[in-house]
Amino acid sequence: MFRKMPFILLAMIVLAAVSHSWLPLAFKSFLYALSLSLKSIIVFCLPFLIFGLLFKTASQLAKKASKVVFFLLIAVCASNFLSTLISYSVGHFAYQFDLSMSLPEEGVSLLPMWQFSLSKWFENSTAMFSGLFLGIVIGRWKPALSESVSSSLEKVIALFLKGFLCVLPAFILGFVIKMNHDQLMAHILRNYALVFTLIACAVFSYIVLIYLVANRFQASACVRSLKNMLPAAIAGFGSMSSAAAMPLSILGAEKNAQNPDLPRFIIPAAVNIHLIGDCFAIPIFAFTVLKNFGVAEPSLLVYLSFASYFVLAKFSVAAVPGGGILVMLPILESALGFNAEMLSLITALYILFDPIITCANVLGNGGFAMVMEKCLANGDVRQVEAPILKKAL
C-alpha cells in the first residue's frame, strides 16, 4: 500500500480541485470535519508513538545513546543555522524586487460540520525526553525488561502505522477541499507567484543537494530516495503538519536507510525542531515585507543576530499549521524592527504558503536522517537489528 500512496494522494488532491465548485457545502463541511477529527486522533497518539520509537532505539543504543543525542542536537542547530544563513542571500536578492503586496480579501471560510478534539496527556517534548531517558536507563541496567517493553511497543506501533495508512486519503481530502473553498490556492498563484517561485526554487534546490550529498551524488539513488519520501511530503502538504506526517516520514526514511533503527530515532526527535522550510520561507518573507514597507535591508551582522535567536526558537516550535511563525513574531519584532502591520502581513503570507513550507520540512527531515545515518555509520555506533515497521508495509 505504501508504494501506491503517492498516486492515491495525488488523485485525492486532483479530485478536490476539480469537484469543490459543485460539491454541496454540507458535504464539504463534513469532509473537513472528518479530516480535523482524524488529525486530532493522530496528534493525540503522536506522543505515544514518539515515546515508543525513541525508547526502543535508545535502549538498543544505550551505551552510545548519549553521544548520539548530543551529536543530533548539534547537527540540528548547524543545519537550521546553515539554512537560515543561505536564506540571507536569497532574501537579499528578493529585496531587489519591486514588490507591492496586499493581504488577501476576507471571504467565507469553510467551517467544519462538528468540532472534535482530544486533550493530549503529555506533550511531544515530554514523550521525546522521557523515551530517551527511560530507554537509556532501562536498556543499560535492565536489558531483559527493556527487550520485553520494546517488543510490546513494536506491535502497537506497527498497528498504528497500518491504520494510519488506511485513513490517510480521507485525512488529506478534507484539508484540500477547504483550501480550494477558501480560494487560497488561487490567491497564492495569482498574487504571490514571484515570491512563491523564489522560495520554492531555493528550498527545494537545497533539499535536492542534501539528498545528492547523502547518496554520494548518484542521481538514480537520489531520485529513489526522494520517491520514498514522496508520500510523507504529500501528507505534509495536505495537512500542513509535519508532526501529522511523521508516520509516513519514518516509513520513507526507513526505506532509505541501511540501518532502519537510526531513522526511527532521528525523525521523531527532529520533527519539531529541524524545519528547513521555515528556515528559508520566514527570512525570505521578512525581506519582502521589509521592502514592501520601505524599511532598510538588515545588515549581515544584524541578520546573524536574528539567525541565532531564530535557530534557538526552533526548539519551541510545534509542527502544526501556523506554528512555525507564531513563536518567531517576537524575534522579528525585536531583531528586524517589525511593527504590528508587518507582523500581520508575514503571518498571513506564512499561513498561505504553509502547505509548501511543511512539504519542504518533511523532505528536509528525510534528507537530514540520511545524512545523520551516514555520519553515525562512519562513527562508533553499532547497527541494531529490529525491523519494527515491516508489518505496516
Automatic annotation (TrEMBL):
Name assigned to this protein: Transporter
A single Gene Ontology CC term: plasma membrane
InterPro entries: Na-dicarboxylate_symporter, Na:dicarbo_symporter_sf
UniProt KW Transmembrane helix keyword: yes
Native species: Candidatus Protochlamydia naegleriophila
Domain of life where this protein originates: Bacteria
Mode of membrane association: Multi-pass membrane protein
Record flagged with keyword Lyase: no
One of the GO biological process terms: serine transport
GO molecular function list: neutral L-amino acid:sodium symporter activity
Bilayer-crossing regions: 36-56, 68-95, 121-138, 159-177, 192-214, 234-253, 265-290, 302-331, 343-364
Keywords: Membrane, Transmembrane, Transmembrane helix, Transport
Annotated SUPFAM superfamilies: Proton glutamate symport protein (SSF118215)
Compartment(s) where it occurs, according to its Swiss-Prot or TrEMBL record: Membrane
Main localization, broad class: membrane
